[in-house]
Amino acid sequence: EAEDSKCVKFEGGLRPEIKKAVGYLEIRNFATLVNKSRIYEEDSKASSSYYKARGDKRNAGQNCNKPYDKPKVNQEDKQNATYERETSGGGSPN
């Protein structure tokens, strides 16, 4: 019974995210509870730092132009393309 009260008191002092993770396991062995809580905290920190590092690389190029943007066409090229269409003879004969 003393072991149970130590576990309950220990769980009460944990951060909410750790308490949520290990609380449902209902561990009533103090050494096991401490160990599982420590492991969860270490894994959580490692996971968080991994995704933060990954996110920085992934979001670094978001302000760049997209590779599929239309190229800008100057006015002279537009006029040449229109002239070529009109003189290519693709229309119906009259």
From TrEMBL:
Which stretches of sequence are listed as region Disordered? Answer: 44-94
**Protein name, as recorded:** Cellular nucleic acid-binding protein
Which domain of life does the protein's organism represent?
A: Eukaryota
> Which species is listed as the source?
Trifolium medium
Ranges annotated as biased composition (Basic and acidic residues): 67-87
